[in-house]
What we know:
Low-confidence stretches: none
Helix content: over 70%
CATH architecture: Up-down Bundle
Number of helices: 12
CATH topology: A middle domain of Talin 1
Number of strands: 4
Strand content: under 5%
Largest sheet: 2 strands, antiparallel
Radius of gyration: 19 Å
Mean pLDDT: 83
Structural class: mainly alpha
Amino acid sequence: MTFFESPSLNLAFNGLILIISVLFLWKGADSLVESASRIAETFGISELVIGLTVVAFGTSAPEFAVTVNAAIHKQADISVGNIVGSNIFNLGFILGTVAIIKSIKATRKLVYRDGIFMISVTLLLLYFFSDYHLARYEGIILMSILAAYLIFLFYKKEPLEEEELDHQKATFKDFVILPVSIIVVIAGGHFLVGSASFLARTAGISEWVIGVTIVAAGTSAPEMATSLAAAIKGKHGMSAGNLIGSDLFNILGVLGLAGTLNPMSINPGAYSSLLLLTGMVTLVIIFLRTGWVLSRVEGFILLLIGIIRWVLDFIK
């Protein structure tokens, strides 16, 4: 972001924006988790469901904006690449990092209901793109599955787990704080990308490296901040639910809408990323099932896979 004629002033300004963006992300995520938890308890909805829906949809807004805009302009590789890359980043870098900092507890519902569903959805996407094309009717199918899943989650209310109860009911203020927090987190991610990209260019880093690192991390920054804040507060359902819900929303909602707006064709090379995503999803669910916890060691493995994927992108 360039606002001044002096290069040194621009450098200092972007450095300041970077710091402020991180503070926005963290404070917004903290408030988001707290207000969402109180709202969940007030309505008798589990934190896992809140994480899978409201929180996940809010933190997926950057991917939604980039992907739908690319679809409208018939840039299929950008649409699909953004979603697939973001989902791999969520499962590798973010979930891995969160688990390294604090192990994430899993539940039977998270693994057997939402985890198996996510594997099935990813396999369905793999099948739809087996001919390197996503037809309009396939996009409609994806969106319909999302609608059915949301109806199921809210219709089949689950009793709250004892560890989820903090005995604080939501007030009117929480219903204001929740959307405002989502906006703050999204804004923090947006300005983080802009300022970090400027600093990277100033340091002589290429546009490609910026795209696959800073932009990928920036659009996923809301998920990172929210999941980490939830894990630290011991709200494991919301932490894992946010990432799984974001991935589901990215595939079913965002790609579904993009494919409905404009049927998409991808190059054969992009299909390998879809295969990697399918493998990552399966590995995450296996890790969550072993001991009903995502351990620090498993977090390191996921993070390592994410790093290797970046390295392979650099040497292509």
